[in-house]
């Protein structure tokens, strides 16, 4: 991290006019100058959207993953739909999302979309990681496929799912910001970023980006910690 | 089904157990394995015949042990009996019901060769799992079973925090938790010291006598097999085949003292001899050669 | 058509207006109309000003989808929508009387005329592709004379990756200068591309069946802009501290923007005909510009000035 | 029919079913939300644009021409991004300290919107293939890295003990245990990265070169040419789905060699 | 280090083995475990003391068996000896070298309680793995080992295609593949039938005698321990502790016949008695109660 700042400093110091790529000092100064009123409100808006997007994206991913578990034939189809949601550029789906969901929810929808596929693939991979003998155990005591899912597969998948959930964090935030960037919203990092860019305030642009990065980092670390708490067995026998 | 399974055994099976007055409800249809074959796909288009024409019949409520050299197909037979694997041919019935692959036999308890505990569950919750699946909870029973296998104090430990033997004991407790009418045990005491093993042997006998549980146990301990069984089936290898089934005619309940009787020793010696003769021809104790690999087109 | 409430005053309920951009100086008149109650007086319970953003076609989409009664757009988007899709939109008024597009360049390496352009590298964002095409055509420049690259941020100019970029005169050079980078601009309007900007669009359906409502909206909006143009403090204040509060705009750059906007909103024509009106000349000029961009449309297909004309004639006080 | 052929036929059928369902879904969603026909083109309209329209040949030439550019951009970025992620994951396994330096950087890079990043990247790399590739790498990189790393780390303690007692260091652990054990995760990353690479390439084209489908789609949106936009989007979506299917088939072939149920 | 470990044993250790003329190069420093403690974190801030003050010394080249009730800490001791776990306190030396956690002892072979085969490698390549790691290949040796453990014909099978006993045999072969100077075996024959087990016992003795391998074997088979060992250490449980170490004074090579001698039976009975006394107080064979769980603040 320190290294990164160092490189940044060196870069901005030496080569480029500071009017376009600010030094770390300028960025920090800009953060202090804008203050809590600015960042508090904008990040709160973005976080709320990213949070909802995260929840929705993950819920849908889990529902589809569960569906695949019950009807394994659907796997190909479900992941193909995942691919579909993930391979279209935002410039293409942005207007559509705005029309379908309304401008206010579009940031949430985009955020959910970016989260969805990562989690879906993580969940599908994880749900296959239960061992044969663990599944047999359920069968012999009269459990059905659904019991296997509940008692074994979900928990066996938990480490993989937690990784997916971790990776989904920056996705969720990015989605929310891009959604805000597209329009229809008054408060949020994406809006502030767009405005700052137009107003030629590179200090603020980079400050906002930095804040975003830090938020992602915190979220990523947080999910990591939760994951470790949730799966204490992962480092134990690990068959 | 009136067809009687052909047994490649010297003895015939049945009447002596049925004579036991206290177990009048036991029928002759406890376990019935007829012409069982299992061929595994062994990769690169090859096939491997693990067992061939296995036949075995035991009355309801009987305790049957299955012994044989390592790799002869004991676990394979057991997994087919449990409905976990599909036989290549042949049929299997348990307590009067036909075993269908993928369908659990009602009232079955099973301990696999590997303990297969769920790593995220505590000992207690691992043992309670079958009850949970079947929708009835019974905390008291679980507690009793934990004490029975000597795991009191470790209720909340996870499998990763247990020793090998402790894991195996948890797996036995789990098999017993459902009050099974049909019990399958695959080398249940292999990782236990003699003391613990003997204790659990006798507890198993007590439980079996109380509940008239039809039981099939795979084991490597000949003494253990004689101590517990009504019948001991001996398998030969490559491909696995039940060569004989010997009724053990020692009165119940058997105790530690039983193990020093002449009758007991006679059975142990006889079975050792048999096992020896199916295991190999070499006097120095060379094991069954696993090299006669049957490759079929 | 709104219901007449008890006291005979019409009531149009709540309507949406899809703005073309974030809430900045560009919509000051609407803020005033909203704050000072002109919309309420005109019969609206509430006028929702919906922010735009980088999604270029949001106004057309919102109007077509019925989410907004009026959208703020540009002929450069509306015309292709009409031509390509046979869409039933009309431009019913225009705020900017002068084509707001400009080529912004560094003062140290200025592009002041078309002849300066030769051999230069110009950043053009996708939404400005058409106007750039029209500009090249109108000035008989070929794709080879200038290099076009996608444009993402003004830093491309300040770091010398491009020699100029296409932006709005209201924000472009002014904001750059305010940030400490001396910039100049070449207005497209001065280079043979007359065009209206910040146009108000409505669907044909609304024009036919909600005419009174639209007229009420236009009237209140004109009132708002008249007030905004006469009271700079209020206009700038509302933008910085109210509607655009979360963007913490700097007063200095808003002041500059205000002045620039005023110059292209209040022309001799609008002084005579009223704000938001579009003269016949300007209509045909716009259509000519569009033709350069490869879009052939007739004034009557693109514009419907009947509403604004009626509003002005019915409310002569709007001209004073 | 031989099993290999049957396998391929089954996968192709699955693929076709997926396409049909997607097309149906497309129609149904647009109708259900009553999306205006000008913006939400229906399958039939896209078909007309590409096949039935008088200028259809021209349209096709344009769309498929751009498709080629995009596939090239995505392909280069995909290979580079995945390779880079793989190398870094391996590096992290060998020198865990490196993770503490690189991971935060990767996170920050990933969450900064590309619109902000692009000018910096084009400044360093120049406008062209190199900056497109860099942008694709940024998009592909983090999820791939996290997945591969998870796979490499998910080593049974028993296996790592085994290597350690025989004196194997991190390198041997990696070669003998971690890598073979991570094959499922590697394949998962290879799959997830396909759509990421495509979308990354299109974003990069939009922001950096203006070529390819990325450039043409956003220009089409800006000029209200929704038929062209939809046609481009659908074509790239279908192509991505096909590529994804191919990698899935590869996965199905490779995976059983490494995960043997015991 | 001149400090001599205190042994809670009746016997003292050493001279009798050194007398054996054919093994002149064996020192007294084969295995030296001094005041070994291991405390596990047991979750929720609690701790669990698995072993306390374990002491054990055996000469270089000796064959030592470790017996004790299930869960008493045998595997824990073994893992510390292997350098896999860090002791909470105490020190461990092997063949004159201090064992450092995380550093492999040169020339060590080990078979874990669970076979730990790599599922994607064939039997053959699993057995060759240690050689591969150490950079020398020896296909002939691997082939011989496969034959030795009776897996000929299964060289190319994957572990998932083997039976439990076959997997265990592969793991033994792997432990032997490095020609170990120091061998650790954790219940290596638990999953094998008597016949195979006896054969491998004798093979192990042969290899050990040839190579003067310092060996520590954890086992539940008392007879097996007596058959193979120079010393048998007996552990008690909760926390684990070596209560005694008994030298087995039966001439080598021992054979199947050895097992019917009176000396052999005397040792077996004596060890059984000891195991019984450390295991529990209950005559009926109740196992060591695992309930006295030491929880420390
Ligand atoms: N999935 C499989 N694929 C191929 N061969 C298999 C498979 N499972 C088992 N076998 C083979 O079938 C034979 C019998 O295996 P099984 O596990 O039934 O032996 P077992 O009698 O239980 O041996 P043990 O006492 O060692 O547990 C073995 O030779 C084994 O290699
Ligand atoms: N990782 C761990 N965390 C907590 N407790 C542990 C852990 N590993 C082992 N233990 C405890 O340490 C004790 C000794 O375990 P160990 O595996 O050494 O026993 P063992 O003598 O090998 O038993 P067995 O004969 O059953 O294999 C057991 O009570 C076990 O519960
Ligand atoms: Mg078996
Ligand atoms: Mg152990």
TrEMBL record, chain A:
Acetylation as UniProt keyword: no
UniProt keyword annotations, A-Z: Cell membrane, Membrane, Transmembrane, Transmembrane helix, Transport
Pfam families: BPD_transp_1
Membrane topology: Multi-pass membrane protein
Superkingdom of this protein's organism: Bacteria
Segments forming domain ABC transmembrane type-1: 43-227
Keyword Transport: yes
Transmembrane domains' residue ranges: 54-71, 83-101, 107-127, 154-178, 205-230
Subcellular localization, as worded in the UniProt entry: Cell membrane
Gene Ontology CC annotation, any one: plasma membrane
Any single GO BP term: transmembrane transport
Alphabetical list of InterPro entries matching this protein: MetI-like, MetI-like_sf
Similarity field: Belongs to the binding-protein-dependent transport system permease family.
Record protein name field: ABC transporter permease
The species this protein was found in: Bifidobacterium mongoliense DSM 21395
UniProtKB/TrEMBL annotation, chains B, E:
PROSITE patterns, A to Z: ABC_TRANSPORTER_1, ABC_TRANSPORTER_2
Broad EC category: hydrolase
Entry keyword set: ATP-binding, Hydrolase, Nucleotide-binding, Transport
GO molecular function: ATP binding; ATP hydrolysis activity
Stored Pfam families: ABC_tran
Region named Disordered: 1-21
Transmembrane segments: none
Domain ABC transporter positions: 34-262
Enzyme Commission numbers on file: 3.6.3.36
Keyword Transport: yes
Top-level taxonomic group: Bacteria
Full protein name: Putative ABC transporter ATP-binding protein
Protein species of origin: Bifidobacterium mongoliense DSM 21395
Lineage per the UniProt record: Bacteria, Bacillati, Actinomycetota, Actinomycetes, Bifidobacteriales
Automatic annotation (TrEMBL), chain D:
Protein name: ABC transporter permease
ABC transmembrane type-1 domain boundaries: 63-251
UniProt membrane topology term: Multi-pass membrane protein
UniProt entry tagged with the keyword Lipid metabolism: no
Family, per entry: Belongs to the binding-protein-dependent transport system permease family.
Alphabetical keyword list: Cell membrane, Membrane, Transmembrane, Transmembrane helix, Transport
This protein's GO CC annotations: plasma membrane
Chain segments annotated as transmembrane: 12-29, 75-95, 107-126, 132-150, 162-183, 229-250
Subcellular locations according to the entry: Cell membrane
GO biological process, one term: transmembrane transport
The organism of origin for this protein: Bifidobacterium mongoliense DSM 21395
Signal peptide start and end residues: none
Pfam family, one: BPD_transp_1
């Amino acid at each position: 991290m320190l290294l990164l700042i160092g490189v940044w400093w060196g870069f901005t110091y030496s080569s480029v006019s500071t009017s376009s790529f600010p030094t770390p000092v300028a960025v920090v100064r800009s953060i202090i100058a804008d203050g809590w009123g600015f960042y508090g409100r904008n990040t709160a808006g973005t976080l709320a959207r990213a949070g909802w997007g995260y929840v929705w994206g993950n819920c849908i991913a889990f529902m589809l993953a569960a569906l695949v578990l019950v009807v394994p034939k659907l796997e190909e189809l479900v992941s193909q739909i995942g691919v579909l949601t993930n391979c279209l550029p935002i410039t293409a789906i942005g207007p559509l999302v705005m029309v379908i969901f309304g401008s206010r929810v579009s940031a949430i929808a985009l955020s959910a979309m970016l989260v969805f596929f990562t989690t879906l693939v993580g969940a599908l991979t994880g749900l296959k990681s239960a061992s044969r003998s663990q599944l047999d155990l359920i069968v012999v005591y009269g459990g059905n496929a659904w019991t296997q899912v509940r008692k074994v597969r979900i928990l066996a998948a938990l480490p993989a799912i937690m990784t997916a959930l971790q990776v989904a964090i920056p996705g969720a935030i990015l989605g929310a910001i891009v959604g805000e960037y597209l329009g229809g919203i008054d408060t949020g990092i994406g809006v502030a970023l767009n405005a700052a860019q137009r107003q030629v305030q590179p200090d603020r642009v980079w400050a906002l980006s930095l804040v975003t990065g830090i938020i992602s980092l915190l979220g990523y670390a947080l999910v990591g910690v939760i994951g470790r708490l949730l799966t204490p067995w992962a480092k134990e026998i690990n068959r | 089904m009136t067809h009687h399974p052909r047994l490649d055994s010297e003895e015939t099976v049945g009447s002596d157990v049925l004579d036991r007055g206290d177990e009048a409800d036991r029928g002759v249809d406890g376990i019935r394995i007829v012409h069982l074959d299992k061929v595994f796909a062994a990769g690169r288009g090859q096939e491997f015949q693990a067992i061939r024409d296995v036949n075995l019949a035991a009355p309801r409520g009987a305790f049957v042990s299955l012994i044989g050299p390592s790799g002869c197909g004991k676990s394979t037979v057991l997994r087919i009996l449990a409905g976990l694997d599909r036989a290549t041919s042949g049929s299997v019935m348990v307590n009067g019901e036909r075993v269908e692959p993928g369908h659990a036999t009602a009232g079955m308890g099973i301990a696999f060769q590997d303990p297969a505990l769920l790593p995220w569950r505590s000992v207690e919750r691992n043992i309670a799992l079958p009850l949970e699946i079947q929708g009835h909870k019974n905390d008291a029973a679980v507690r009793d079973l934990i004490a029975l296998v000597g795991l009191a104090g470790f209720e909340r430990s996870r499998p990763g925090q247990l020793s090998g033997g402790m894991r195996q004991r948890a797996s036995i407790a789990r098999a017993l938790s459902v009050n099974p009418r049909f019990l399958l045990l695959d080398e249940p005491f292999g990782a236990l010291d003699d003391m613990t093993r003997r204790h659990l042997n006798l507890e198993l006998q007590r439980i079996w006598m109380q509940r008239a549980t039809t039981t099939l146990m795979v084991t490597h301990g000949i003494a253990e097999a004689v101590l517990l069984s009504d019948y001991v089936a001996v398998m030969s290898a490559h491909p696995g085949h039940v060569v004989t089934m010997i009724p053990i005619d020692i009165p119940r309940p058997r105790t530690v003292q039983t193990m020093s009787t002449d009758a007991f020793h006679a059975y142990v010696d006889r079975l050792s001899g048999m096992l020896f003769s199916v295991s190999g021809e070499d006097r120095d104790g060379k094991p069954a050669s696993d090299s006669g690999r049957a490759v079929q087109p | 058509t709104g219901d007449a409430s008890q006291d005979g005053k019409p009531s149009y309920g709540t309507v949406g207006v899809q703005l073309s951009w974030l809430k900045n100086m560009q919509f000051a008149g609407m803020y005033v109309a909203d704050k000072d109650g002109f919309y309420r007086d005109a019969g609206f319970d509430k006028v929702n000003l919906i922010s735009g953003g980088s999604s270029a076609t949001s106004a057309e989409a919102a109007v077509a989808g019925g989410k907004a009664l009026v959208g703020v757009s540009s002929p450069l988007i509306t015309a292709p929508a009409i031509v390509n899709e046979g869409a039933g939109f009309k431009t019913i008024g225009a705020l900017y009387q002068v084509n707001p597009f400009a080529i912004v360049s560094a003062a140290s390496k200025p592009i002041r005329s078309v002849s300066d352009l030769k051999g230069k590298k110009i950043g053009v964002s996708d939404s400005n592709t058409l106007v750039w095409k029209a500009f090249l055509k109108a000035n008989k420049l070929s794709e080879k004379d200038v290099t076009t690259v996608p444009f993402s941020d003004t830093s491309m100019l300040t770091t010398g990756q491009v020699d100029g970029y296409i932006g709005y005169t209201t924000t472009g050079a002014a904001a750059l200068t305010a940030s400490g980078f001396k910039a100049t601009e070449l207005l497209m309007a001065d280079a043979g591309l007359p065009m209206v900007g910040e146009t108000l669009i409505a669907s044909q359906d609304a024009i036919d069946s909600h005419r009174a409502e639209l007229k009420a909206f236009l009237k209140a909006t004109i009132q708002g802009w008249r007030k905004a143009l006469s009271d700079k403090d209020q206009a700038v204040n509302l933008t910085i501290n109210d509607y655009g509060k979360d963007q913490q705009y700097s007063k200095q750059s808003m002041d500059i923007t205000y002045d620039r906007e005023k110059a292209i909103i209040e022309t001799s024509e609008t002084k005579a005909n009223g704000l938001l009106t579009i003269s016949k000349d300007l209509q045909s000029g716009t259509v000519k510009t569009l033709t350069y961009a490869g879009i052939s449309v007739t004034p009557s297909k693109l514009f419907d000035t009947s509403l604004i004309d009626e509003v002005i004639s019915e409310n002569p006080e709007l001209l004073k | 029919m031989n099993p290999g052929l049957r396998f391929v036929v089954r996968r192709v059928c699955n693929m076709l079913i997926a396409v049909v369902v997607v097309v149906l879904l497309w129609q149904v969603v647009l109708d259900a939300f009553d999306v205006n026909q000008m913006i939400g083109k229906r399958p039939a309209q896209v078909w007309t644009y590409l096949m039935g329209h008088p200028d259809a040949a021209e349209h096709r030439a344009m769309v498929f021409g751009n498709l080629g550019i995009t596939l090239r951009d995505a392909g280069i970025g995909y290979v580079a991004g995945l390779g880079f992620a793989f190398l870094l994951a391996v590096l992290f396994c060998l020198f865990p300290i490196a993770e503490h330096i690189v991971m935060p950087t990767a996170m920050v890079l990933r969450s900064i919107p590309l619109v902000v990043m692009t000018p910096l990247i084009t400044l360093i790399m120049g406008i062209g293939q190199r900056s497109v590739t860099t942008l694709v790498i940024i998009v592909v990189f983090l999820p791939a890295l996290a997945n591969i790393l998870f796979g490499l780390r998910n080593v049974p303690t028993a296996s790592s003990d085994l290597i350690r007692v025989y004196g194997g260091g991190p390198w041997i652990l990696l070669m003998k245990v971690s890598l073979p054990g991570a094959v499922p995760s590697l394949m998962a990353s290879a799959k997830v990265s396909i759509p990421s690479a495509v979308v990354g390439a299109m974003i990069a084209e939009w922001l950096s070169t203006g070529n390819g489908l990325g450039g043409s789609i956003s220009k089409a949106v800006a000029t209200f040419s929704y038929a062209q936009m939809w046609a481009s989007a659908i074509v790239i979506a279908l192509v991505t789905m096909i590529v994804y299917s191919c990698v899935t088939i590869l996965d199905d072939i490779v995976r059983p060699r490494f995960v043997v149920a015991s």
